């Protein structure tokens, strides 16, 4: 079969063996696969990430010396079953699958491991247990966005965002745009989107962002401050203690310590906005921590594969929450698929191009600095050689 292979940071179209499904596995004929931002990073920074993942117990992340078929955002048609499968779906059924698989007792990330070839190919092997049928009537290009939308569903869940919270999305690439879609689907009233690119800011508007900001012209934090009563200086936080005690000590018989504890539970001390960092380049965490109001919750969604640094003292003084996310669970994957199928989110603005295998290497270079592109899909049957 034809596939796009990554080796030493270079991409080439090659003829390789078609993978064979093992026990409990399914062979899919790939219909669409997306180029993910983490693929762009992995092509050049895989060794750094492999070192880190090995430290946390996963030593099979791709390295530059490997020959890897990338691709973990895909939909495909049932082509064949391996042994010990339930064979629930007829051949030709369109399905989506989580990009994780086990060979024996060993887990692999599909498309990010030399031992689990991904979907930049005509065929890909997936786990039957992790496979879900695409509901009838869902356009192919929309169904192909299930995996990146799953990342956004997980990120928003981790952010504990309420409808009355102000959410700020920094970076309006495919993941940032997906976060905007999920936030609006959950009924969050105020979503502020910030991006340097005019093209991506326009995409953010189309995805439902209520306020769109060019950070070189206006600070998203100043905009957020107009929407919420946030604390921006440590002195304000300290002064709340004085003000509370001044009032509470004058109420006879009131156990003031319990009143303060109750106030904390009901949000008497203002929290900051919920910020989603969707850029994933060095310096972004420091930039956000420095700019945000006190007690802001920051969800780091962008995958930075390089070393970075920020000032903990700044985060400490602001009592900032930092939450890092990766992947999603099977229920969140299903939620994403059905948000698309039920029409609760419209992912069509995200798809800005469909190409064939022969264009992939060139498109990787373009996407590194493209201002008007979001999600580019690969159609294995396409002869399109450029965007």
Question: What does this protein look like?
Answer:
With 387 residues, the chain is an alpha/beta fold. It folds into two domains: 2-134 and 347-378, Quinone Oxidoreductase, Chain A, domain 1 (Alpha-Beta Complex); 149-324, NAD(P)-binding Rossmann-like Domain (Rossmann fold, 3-Layer(aba) Sandwich), CATH 3.40.50.720. The chain has helices at 37-55, 140-143, 146-159, 174-185, 198-206, 220-227, 234-248, 256-265, 284-291, 312-318, 330-341, 360-367; strands at residues 2-7, 10-15, 25-34, 68-69, 73-81, 94-97, 100-103, 106-109, 123-127, 131-133, 166-170, 190-194, 211-213, 274-277, 297-300, 321-324, 351-355, 375-378. Strands 3, 5, 6, 9, 10, 17 and 18 form a seven-stranded mixed beta sheet that branches. The longest helix has 19 residues, at 37-55. Residues 22-136 form the Alcohol dehydrogenase-like N-terminal domain. GO terms for molecular function: oxidoreductase activity; zinc ion binding. Pfam families: ADH_N.
């Amino acid at each position: 079969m034809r596939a796009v292979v990554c080796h030493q940071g270079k991409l080439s179209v090659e003829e390789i063996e078609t993978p064979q499904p093992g026990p409990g596995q399914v062979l899919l004929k790939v219909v669409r696969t997306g180029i993910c931002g983490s693929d762009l990073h992995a092509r050049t920074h895989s060794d750094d990430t492999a070192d880190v993942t090995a430290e946390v117990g996963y030593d099979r992340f791709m390295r530059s010396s490997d020959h890897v078929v990338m691709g973990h955002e895909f939909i495909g048609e049932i082509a064949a079953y391996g042994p010990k499968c339930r064979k629930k779906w007829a051949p030709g059924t369109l399905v989506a699958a989580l990009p994780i698989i086990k060979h024996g007792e060993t887990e692999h990330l599909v498309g990010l491991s030399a031992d689990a070839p991904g979907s930049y190919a005509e065929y890909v092997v997936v786990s039957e247990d992790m496979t879900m049928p695409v509901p009838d009537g869902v356009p192919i290009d929309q169904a192909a966005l299930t995996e990146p939308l799953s990342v956004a569903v997980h990120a928003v869940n981790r952010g504990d965002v309420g409808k009355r919270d102000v959410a700020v999305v920094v970076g309006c690439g495919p993941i940032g745009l997906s976060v905007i879609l999920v936030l609006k689907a959950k009924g969050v009233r105020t979503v502020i989107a910030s991006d340097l690119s005019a093209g991506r800011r326009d995409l953010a508007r189309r995805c439902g962002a209520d306020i769109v900001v060019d950070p070189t012209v206006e600070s998203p934090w100043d905009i957020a401050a107009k929407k919420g009563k946030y604390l921006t200086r440590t002195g304000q936080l300290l002064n709340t203690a004085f003000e509370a005690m001044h009032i509470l000590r004058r109420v006879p018989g009131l156990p003031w310590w319990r009143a303060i504890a109750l106030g904390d539970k009901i949000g008497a001390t203002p929290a900051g906005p919920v910020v989603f960092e969707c850029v994933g380049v060095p310096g972004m965490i420091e930039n956000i921590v420095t700019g945000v109001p006190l007690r802001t919750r920051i969800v780091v969604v962008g995958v930075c594969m390089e070393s970075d640094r920020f000032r903990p003292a700044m985060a400490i003084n602001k009592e900032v929450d930092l939450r890092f996310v990766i992947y999603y669970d099977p229920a969140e994957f299903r939620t994403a698929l059905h948000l698309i199928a039920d029409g609760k989110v419209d992912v069509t603005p995200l798809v800005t191009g469909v190409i064939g295998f022969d264009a992939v290497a060139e498109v990787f270079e373009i996407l590194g600095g493209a201002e008007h592109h979001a999600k580019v899909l690969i159609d294995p049957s396409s002869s399109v050689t450029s965007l």
